[in-house]
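Usage

Read records sequentially. Each one opens with the input sequence:
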Amino acid sequence: MEYNYPKFTPEMKKTHTILIPNMAITQFRLLEYALRYDGYKCEILGNCGSAVAQLGLKYVHNDTCYPALLVIGQFLDALNSGKYDLDHTALLITQTGGGCRASNYIHLLRKALVKAGYPEIPVELETPDAFIVIPMDSMLIQQVLMNLLENAVFHAKGMKNLWLRVEVKGLWAYFYVEDDGCGIPEEKLPKLFTGMLGSEAPTDQSRSSMGIGLSVCRAIVRAHGGEIYARNKIDGGAEFRFWLPAEEESNT
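and closes with the structure output:
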């Protein structure tokens, strides 16, 4: 008999706290940042150690992918802690949910939740309609995205919303970072990616200035065969976009 698992509904956006596993801290901080700006309440878990691993082993077969044991153990340990209102808590998982033991975390997690006495906790997985293959150095492109998001936080005065989206047009993947802040002074747009805005360095000197950081972003994007561009939006705020060559999905 198939179990009727709880679903994360649109109404839960306002009422639930979403727990995020600590699988890749830099990338998942970016995910947390995007979710918070879209109005979700979320938290990256920081619990770890042998107790977490043992809890995962208790509810998941020991031949399963070890990171799955840690992720599920981390979730269960958080739910057991008493820190969260279980009637208003949801879990986020990013694996595809496929048949491979390295990707079917969501099925293992749902099964473990039922066994551990938490059948009411919703777990959601979202995947794109089409599989996108983008040849790239993921760490470098991640750095580009982090830089663009940080620029918005430090320079887009008056910003209330920040958006990050990706879309595919033909054989190109387009990345957009948009805000509704003060925009970019028109006289600075031509020099934005040249590294010539050094006078705009923030008070915290450990961070690069907007211009220097963006010049590095342009170098990374161009090294991948793409291009980067910035403009002020008609309805206010700024838009940064860059595009990279994508590959057609292989049928083999």
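Summary fields computed downstream for this record:
- The radius of gyration is 21 Å.
- Strands lie at 17-20, 41-44, 89-92, 123-124, 162-169, 172-179, 227-232, 238-245.
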